[in-house]
Amino acid sequence: MRQFLIYFKLLRAHNCLIAMLAVAVGQYLTVGFIPEHLNHFALAAAFFVCAFGNLVNDIRDVDSDKINHPKRALPTGAVSIDRARTLSCFLLIISLILTIWLSWPGRVIILAGLILVTLYNLSLKRLPYWGNLAVSLLSGFTFLLGGIETIDATGDHLLALFTFPGPMIPAIFGLLMHFGREIIKDVADIGGDAIDNSRTAPIKHGKATPLAIAYFLFLILMIFSIVVYWVGWFKPVYLYMTLGFVILPLIVQMVLLGLNPDAKRCLMISSIVKLQMIPGIIALILGKNY
């Protein structure tokens, strides 16, 4: 049981389960979705791609994590680097095998995700904003994968994807929320990232400019959240949940962050923003009005 928990945390399996949920939500929110058409292989592929990315990230960050996240499995030695590398290869192979049961656009999404997560870990994460954008795009990809794997009445995967409101709405939400959160997380990780010779936005430009960009992204997110309700795509329950669990808490968090943007508070708020994604997804599910 202890070994299971170690690997569960190493892969950050809870994030991988959220990726699976995002694919299912992307399918559910696609116009013309039929429950019997839920593609379980797409859900599994999202899980393994996410796990692969998390593991490669920890392998690359083992030195900086000794400062930023000293209790993780690799810095503590609970799992060896060699074993982690072997496991990452296994996760990659499983991800590729699962594409056999996806549509060709779905395969493109998975391959693009694998390429992007690899580039992120090799170089993008150490560059200002580019790493943040990569993670945000990967978040949006999960919802789009769900939409692509939902066949509309004409049998056209791409038409189902680009029919609004559909999976584009949660994909935009995910991109904006992750982009802002990742910037704040970079502020929290300044200490370890500096040792790792990273050139993240806070290291290169200081805290003020990146945090201002995060504020701007969250402002767009809040406005967009109201607009999709105003045009009639979602029921009142969506609005109530979004206001109560996403918008108002974000405003409070931004005020607190502005008062004292130290590493500890940035880490706390980035963790809270991650948790807010769950009620945000639930609001979309319960509030669907098409």
Question: Which features would summarize this protein structure in a list?
Answer:
about 75% helix; globular; single chain; about 290 residues; Farnesyl Diphosphate Synthase; mainly alpha
How would you name the oligomeric state of the polypeptide chains in this document?
A: single chain
Radius of gyration, in angstroms, nearest whole number = 19 Å
Compressed to H and E, one letter per element, the order equals HHHHHHHHHHHHHHH
The number of E-state strands comes to 0
Ends distance = 44 Å
Please summarize the sheet with the most strands. none
Which of globular, elongated, flat, extended, rod-shaped describes the shape?
globular
Ranges with pLDDT <50 over ≥5 residues?
A: none
CATH topology: Farnesyl Diphosphate Synthase
- Tell me the fraction of residues in β-strands, as a range: under 5%
Number of domains: 1
Number of helices, where a helix is a run of at least 4 consecutive DSSP H or I residues: 15
User: Would you identify the CATH architecture?
Assistant: Orthogonal Bundle
Output the structural class.
mainly alpha
What CATH first level would be assigned?
Mainly Alpha
Q: What's the pLDDT, averaged over the residues?
A: 90
Helix content range of the residues, please? over 70%
